[in-house]
Amino acid sequence: MLVKMTLEEFGDVLGSDAPAPGGGSVAALSGALGAELVAMVCRLSIGRKDLEAHAQEIKTGLLEADGLAAGLMRRVDLDTEAFNAVMAAFKLPKATDAEKQKRAEAIQTGYKDAVQSPLSIARECVSVLNLSKSLLGKTNPNALSDLGVAAQQAYAGLEGAIMNVKINLPSIKDQQFNSATSVEVSQLLKCGREAKDDVYNFVSEKL
Fold first, then answer.
1. What whole-number distance in Å separates Cα of residue 150 and Cα of residue 21?
2. Do residues 38 and 46 touch, judged by C-beta distance below 8 A?
3. The model's pTM
4. Cα-Cα-Cα-Cα dihedral of 176, 181, 184, 188, to 10°?
5. Complete DSSP assignment for 164-183
6. Ramachandran bin of 47, using left for φ above 0, alpha for ψ from -120 to 50, beta for the remaining angles
7. Residues near 170 by Cβ (< 8 Å), separated by ≥ 6?
8. What does the pLDDT look like over 8-27, one tens digit per residue?
9. What is the DSSP letter of 137?
10. C-alpha span between 152 and 164 (Å, rounded)
């Protein structure tokens, strides 16, 4: 499992000539790091008397951040598995018409999974961004920059995940699937950018 590697080991595999792990796994990791930073900020805020009015929201935010971090970390491996499934489909036999049909169907299924994987990463990165935004002005002011970095990491994960969605869409023949995915991609990017900008502007003004 990629997530069980040391940072150096993961970096070596990532930098090798192997096509996976690639951008999708890195996008998931980026989002996970953002979520972990939000969790840290929440933990540094719990119990502070000056934040008692926001105590419950901080605790709820911590639970959400921990969940998002765990989910995105799992997707580091899941995205690589989705890519490998596409490659495996291309290696299926194609000597007969039946084999060709089975191979074509497997390739299409593989590409759809290769789109759904980064799309899920993008959704969760937007959740991290929205969570970061919801905690502005309610957490430990000494960790404000960390909240800002969390949003930047999550946004990088969002943009990276969307790139991995877009590169696979042209290979999918299901136009209804492509259209629905494109609409969602636009919505996710719009929502993510707004949250990222709100966090950045708030943090920049306070530092």
1. 23
2. no
3. 0.94
4. -170
5. HHHHHGGG---HHHHHHHHH
6. left
7. none
8. 999 999 999 988 899 999 99
9. T
10. 19
